[in-house]
Amino acid sequence: ENNNMNGTLPYFPRYIPRLRELDLSNQAKNGGLTGSIPAGLSNLGDLTVLDFSGNALKDDIPSDIGNFAQLKRLNLSNNHLSGIIPSELGKLVGLEIFDLSNNYLENRIPSELGNLDSAIVLLSGNGNFTNRINTDLVPLALCSLHNVDLKDNAQLCPPERNALKKFYDAAKGREWTESTLWLHEYESHCLWFGVDCGKDNNTIKLKLASNGLSGTLTKNIANLTRLEVLDLSDNDIKGKIPTEIGSLSFLHRLRLNHNFFIGNDTNFGNLKQLKLLQIHGNRLSGTVPMLNLTVHNRSSYVSDCGYPSEFKMALSCTECSMCCNSKGDCFPQEGIKKHIPGVDSYVQLSGVVLVCLIGLFGVLASTAFSCAKYHSRDMPRSSNLRPSLTRKNKINALKSIGKNSVYQFILGTSWIGWFIFLTVIAAQSTILIIFIRGSEIDLSNDQIDLVFTWYCPRDQDECTDTSDLSLIGWLAFAVMMVSHLLADIINGVKLILLSATEQNNYQTRARYFVGGMILSSIALFTLYVSTIYNYATATSNTDIVMNSVIILFVTDIDEFVYQILVVINFFGVKHMLLEEEKESFLETCPPKKENEKGGLGMSLQQQAVDYQHLVSEFRTLKTDFQQLQETVDTLHK
After folding, report:
1. Distance of alpha carbon 416 from alpha carbon 171, whole angstroms
2. Does the keyword Transmembrane apply (predicted)?
3. 566 near 556, Cβ under 8 Å?
4. Nearest Cα residue to 388 out of 504, 498, 508, 493
5. Is residue 17 reached through a cis peptide bond, with omega within 30 degrees of 0 on the bond before it?
6. Across the chain, which distance is largest between two alpha carbons, in Å?
7. Which one, of 62, 170, 77, lies nearest residue 120 by Cα?
8. What DSSP letter does each residue of 294-307 carry, written as one string?
9. How far apart are CA 206 and CA 194, in angstroms?
10. Residue 8: helix, strand or coil by DSSP?
11. What is the pTM of this model?
């Protein structure tokens, strides 16, 4: 080298057949070597170095140079070589240096040069292709090599094309259902199947759903820096979701659902523009971080945070809009806490409802008492305490609370009766609470009765409700509730209003108020429980009717218990009743025959008949007295 040689190159195999190194570089000071590179140099079978750089050689590069088996360095840079690069040069797999820079080579670079993965490949400075803006000039295989000078030229070697190639290799692209133009050596990646580009040929969408992808998801996906939509749903991709995906700051739709992703430390970074994230149908565990999605609807954030789960503990996702279970069924995570601040469950809401009912009934009783006191302000105190009015109030109270219910025991003075009353109330409340707990919308709790009625299809972004429950079912529910509970609610209110009258002493009024409040509260509470339980579990019109019948049965327990008490303990029940009820109670019992034992029973029945006769006569006298009083008043006027 550097000997100021000129002229043309001789046929070296003829003169030096065992030549190992041929370095005639940098002869340009005296014009340098000219002419063409002679063909047949490959006959120098032992040649390891061929360096003609820094001369004035021209014309095409001989294709037989690719036949050098031992060649380690090929340097033809800084000449006037033209034409195309022979594809045979791709056979020089043992090269360490491959330098064709600063010539006048043109047309496509052969893809076979991608085989030179051990060499430093230098091709820049060839104006006929490096100065042209044409992304298909440099083959993908060559751009994928680490030691290629053109790989940093974004126009000739788009970095996103390399990233997509690595994605293809990691996801076993050869097994894909559809992979048109993928890994084409010269076609733009924007023409590859499932790839959409925006301006400047930046990849903005990668949609390969249901396409047979497997393998893993490479972290190089993060090199698609302008990506907005990534849909790899319904495939067989395994491994962890790379945390590098969190650097895709423009991403607003991410669908990785129905794959085989694993991991308990899933982290999506800070995807500020994310509007949709669906990762259900995988094998993720642990906790999914908060993302603060810009759009919130039932399909915007879906994960496997429901029970039953593939794991002992389901995936924790407090921000998810929809939770799916291992069966593929889903349900919106719209817990009660999202609607009422400070209330995290239906059990807590039940306490709030009961407190509100007690307060409402207290206000009602106070208002009624104030009104009654105002209207009776001009009446003598003694007139308000007449026995006839007191007895009439007791009869009205008994009618309101029910003659065939243990609720009537609260109106009496028997401690046993009160105990039975409280026991039945406790039993009814306990049963209703069981239904309340079963209604909880806690999708991570496998102890609830909640039915997952939603379905998030593999091939669609939107989740749909598969429930067959319609408006007709809810109308049937309303009819059942009104027909069964409205009378109890009204009678309870009547009792509360009755507790405001001054004809009764304070103890009696307190019993009226408690009885009325319990009667109305149980009815209203049953309505509340029926509503939330059907919302959680009813999937058809038949379901809502059956559930309602079962829950309404709870309101009849007081009557069933009363009937049992009547059957097993006739006289014990009688002594717990009001005097006014004993009359009708005895009337309902068949009289014993005289030849039967139980003279005491006959005596009590006879006393009851006598008592009724006296009451009848008293009422007749009272009516006659009132008519006489009216006549006297008329004569006086």
Report:
1. 77
2. yes
3. no
4. 504
5. no
6. 164
7. 77
8. SS-STTSEEES-SS
9. 6
10. strand
11. 0.73
Note whether 263 and 289 are within 8 A (CB): no
Percent of the chain whose pLDDT exceeds 70: 80
137 alpha carbon, distance to own chain's centre: 48
Helix (H, G, I), strand (E, B) or coil at 98: strand
CB of 68 closer than 8 Å to CB of 93: no
Q: What share of the chain is helix, strand, coil (3-state, %, to 5)?
A: 45, 10, 45
Which parts of the chain sit beneath pLDDT 50?
131-135, 381-386, 389, 570-571, 578-602
C-alpha angle 78-80-86 in degrees, rounded to nearest 5: 95
- What is the end-to-end Cα distance of the chain in Å, rounded? 152
Amino acid at 541: N
Rounded-to-integer distance, Cα 35 and Cα 154, Å: 35
What integer pLDDT is reported at residue 593 of this predicted model? Answer: 44
Q: What one-character DSSP code corresponds to residue 148?
A: B
Sign of CA pseudo-dihedral 386, 391, 392, 394:
positive
Residues 6+ away with beta carbon under 8 Å from 454: 298, 322, 329, 330, 331, 332, 463, 464, 465, 466
SS3 readout for 393-460: HHHHHHHHHCCCCHHHHHHCCCHHHHHHHHHHHHHHHHHHHHHHHHCCCCCCCCCCCCCCCEECCCCC
Q: What is the pLDDT, as a whole number, of residue 336?
A: 52
Q: What is the pLDDT of residues 54-84, one digit of tens each?
A: 999 999 999 999 999 899 999 999 999 999 9
How many CB atoms are closer than 10 A to CB 206? 19
Do residues 533 and 435 lie in contact, with contact meaning Cβ atoms separated by under 8 Å? Answer: yes
